[in-house]
Structure prediction request, 268 residues.
Amino acid sequence: MSLFNTFHIAGSALTAQSLRLNAVASNLANADSIIGPDGKPYRAKQVVFAATPMGSAAAQGVRVTQVVEDRAPGRMVYDPRNPVADERGYVAMPNVDVAEEMTNMISAARSYQTNAEVMNTAKQLLLKTLTIGQ
Amino acid sequence: MPSKLDSNFLLQQQALTLRANRQQVLAGNIANADTPNYKARDFEFAAALENVLSGRREGSLLLAITSPRHLGGAAGSSQVRLLYRQPIQPSADGNTVDMDVERSRFAENAFQYEAGLTFINSKIRTMITALQGQ
Prediction:
């Protein structure tokens, strides 16, 4: 029954978009974390989406293949009183672009919403199918 | 008699199956709206229905039948020919999903599915009326 597959496809998109939203939350929370788990400034994380077949070739779901670290250089802030400042008084900050993360967040939220709607439509159609002949 | 009942419902049943199939393809497009290099897909409903009703398959390799005791069969075939959508506004990451187009097609297809359900229900009702003979 291919309408059930519609559920799986929309579900895979919901999972992927929530992962993206998680990455955005992590990036925004750590926009000023000058010391990450490895002792270096936090680096922005981005998810990579890839289409993945679900059940049949016609049904393409989506999944997150990997989470990559943004390789853009972090900004340097002059703050000689900071304990982690280098010998010239500069502090390496994370490479999180807050404006970019905000647009990323809106895009992820909209995609999540659309896929939830797809799921709702599939549910309505399935329920109506169950009442055939009544 | 069962075969006559069968053929009476065949058209509606095949149409519903195809609509459900198309719903799944469109859900895949919506799920992959943010996947780089994903190409939106769809199929022509009228042509697919014609193929199904006439038993024709797209790009199929039929088994050679040289004896009346051989069974027929087809390899690597499907009655639905999936095509790629012509992008109106292609994006820089190679994705051709246009959310407006996909969502309107999705809504239209859901509506057509419901119409199919209505047709099949009224056929069943006609049949029941005939059976009761009151």
